[in-house]
Structures are given as C-alpha cells and as structure tokens.
TrEMBL record:
Biological processes per GO annotation: mRNA processing; regulation of gene expression; rRNA processing; tRNA processing
Residues where Mg(2+) binds: 43, 116, 119
Name of the protein this chain belongs to: Ribonuclease 3
Cofactor(s) required, per the database record: Mg(2+)
Subunit architecture: Homodimer.
InterPro entries in the record: dsRBD_dom (IPR014720), RNase_III (IPR011907), RNase_III_dom (IPR000999), RNase_III_sf (IPR036389)
Length: 229
C-alpha cells in the first residue's frame, strides 16, 4: 500500500512528505538501500510526545488520584503491547518499508517493530502539524486502551495473572510443556500447553516459546472464566 493511503485514511495531509516516509522506514531498509533515513530518531521523539500527552490527560482528568496511581495507569497505556494494538488498528504494517531479509523473517508481524512505528508516526505528525494535532491523534487512537487502563482491564502478563488467580485457591502446580515446533529456523512456530495440577488447561502458539506460553495462559484464563478471549 502507498503511504498516501495512510494520509487519506486518517485525514492527514503532510506538508513535509519526507517526515511520514521516514516514519515508515525501518533501519533494515535504510541499511540495504542506502541514502534512506530510518525512523529510530523519530521513535525517540514520538515516545516523549506520547508520554507527555497521556501524562497531561491523566493529570487533568483524575485530580483525586495519587502520583503512584497515575503512574500505574500510564504504564498500561504507554507500553509495547498497547502500541502494537494501535498499530494493528491503523494497519501500519502495510506501510512499513523493510529489507527483504527482515520481511522473510517475519518482521512485518513483529510486535516491537510495529510498536516503534507508532511512535515514529506520532513524531512525524508532531513535527509537521504541531503538538495539539498530535495530541488529538493520540487520544483518538488510544481512547479504548485508556478506558481499559483506567478500569484496570489490561493484562500484560497472562502467566502472572493466571498464577495470581490460582494462588487464591491454595497450593497449585502450574507448568508449561512444549508440544511441538514447526517451520524453518528463521520462522519457527512453537505450540505449548499449560497444565494445572497435571491437567491440560490451555493451549497456545507463537513465534517464541515465551509468546506461546503467554497465549496458553491466556487460553487457560478464558477456560477458567476470567474473561480473556
């Protein structure tokens, strides 16, 4: 897809087209084709703009909450998982330019790569349109995540959540077993199950053992009726 489609889809017309082009340029692409600026410096700036926007919003909205409470809510909003969700909702992976090698090893689906791109896009908007426009873009696209964070409905670590839930019932044994893996070394997929007192309770898959175990724990939570589908 053409980056101009991103502008049209989001009602943004960049005065400096190079900014948004750079925001969608991964370092692997810049290194492969030379003469291209990658988005890592924009990521750095975008993170600061995002932090400021969410901090200011929470500070003004929740006058009764302490610094610690506000910090906890912000940490749920400004994190890799939340940024990845925003990237998916905006379809950013369709616009990212990366090297052939990065593409072949699953780079377009990588959580961190997409999350970083969101920060770069925020920085590009800030530099081209100013802070108020950037704030509006952030609050519009993070709205659902903000609401869930306020209600403490965001779970970043399903394995910890599962352990905390089961510990309330006393001594319980939780273990994760690798069932199988498949695919080439550069794109290996893992299949895992979680056992609770030796009973199969959930299954998960992912492109790392850690991801597969998290998804197995997430499945177990849904089986146990904890509302995580």
């Amino acid at each position: 897809m053409n980056i101009r489609d991103f502008e049209v889809g989001n009602g943004i017309v960049f005065e400096n087209k190079r900014l948004i082009d750079t925001a969608f340029t991964h370092s692997s692409y810049a290194h492969q084709y030379k003469n291209f600026e990658h988005n890592e410096r924009l990521e750095f700036l975008g993170d600061a703009v995002l932090q400021l926007t969410i901090t200011e919003y929470l500070y003004k909205k929740f006058k009764d909450k302490s610094e610690g409470e506000l910090t906890k809510i912000r940490s749920l909003i400004v994190c890799e998982n939340s940024l990845f969700q925003v990237a998916q909702s905006l379809g950013l992976s369709n616009f990212i330019k990366m090297s052939k090698g990065e593409e072949m090893t699953g780079g377009r689906e990588r959580t961190a790569l997409q999350a970083d791109c969101v920060e770069a896009v925020i920085a590009a908007i800030y530099l081209d349109k100013g802070i108020e426009f950037a704030k509006e873009f952030i609050l519009n696209n993070f709205n659902d995540i903000i609401e869930k964070a306020i209600k403490n409905e965001i779970v970043l670590d399903f394995k910890t959540k599962l352990q905390e839930l089961l510990q309330k019932q006393g001594e319980i044994d939780i273990s994760y077993d690798l069932i199988k893996f498949e695919g080439p070394p550069h794109r290996r997929k893992f299949f895992t199950k979680v056992l609770i007192n030796s009973e199969d309770m959930g299954y998960g898959e992912g492109y790392s053992k850690k991801e597969a175990e998290q998804n197995a724990a997430k499945h177990a939570l849904s089986v146990l009726g904890d509302g995580h589908e």
